[in-house]
């Protein structure tokens, strides 16, 4: 579903230069892969590259679903094409939720569709799918509420629904459970796993919570820091991290 070859970016200059590298990644539909490593090793940077937000310094291949290799578009930074791909094929879930405070829960959830309509891409939100998500995550009574009236866990659940409302091919989640206590972190993580697998949405999830990964035996990308000034991410089979 997602195939990447030789993706890397160099941040900083001189003695402060640091390279984040992903030699190879193949991700199947419905597969969930964690991204692990110590703080500052480049996990979020890697996610930004894969999410077509950060331009890589080097890239040989980037193929998403049935699309052709789009590495030339990425390296040339064709912003119109990349914006359309982000809006139609990718879903983003931020560590802080990223909800707009002046929109109700319902309008926050509909935001991807509003963006697509403004870009004349078409209506991508399935109302039955949204209703299913809202019911599964027990948020129906909060649809007309504003984010400041929600708990942290409720905001993260809304952020998840917004990220998958348009049924993206790939979900990118950056520390989605970091602000939650262990009980609610497990609940949200299992809901995410069940729903993305139900819809065959591939997912990459940055997390520091190794217990979440180990308990579910998820495959993961681990940063190899043996070379000075370089983090090389490689995919590992599920098991103890």
Query: How would you classify the helix and strand content by structural class?
Result: alpha/beta
| Helix proportion | 25-40%
Round the mean pLDDT to the nearest integer and report it: 88
Strand order of the largest sheet: 4-1-2-9-8-3-7-6-5
- Uncertain stretches: none
CATH topology: Rossmann fold
End-to-end distance = 25 Å
**Total tally of structural domains:** 1
Please provide the count of β strands.
Answer: 9
SSE series: EEEHEHHEHHHEHEHEE
Short description:
The protein has eight helices and nine strands. By secondary structure, the protein is of the alpha/beta class.
Task: Describe this structure as you would to a colleague.
A nine-stranded mixed β-sheet has the order 4-1-2-9-8-3-7-6-5, sandwiched between helices. A hairpin with a 6-residue loop joins strand 1 (2-11) and strand 2 (18-27). It has 241 residues and is α/β, with parallel strands linked by helices. It has one domain: Rossmann fold. It is globular and about 50 Å long. It is built from eight helices and nine strands. Helix 4 runs parallel beside helix 6 and helix 6 (152-164) runs parallel beside helix 7. The longest helix is centred in the last third of the chain and has 17 residues, at 182-198.
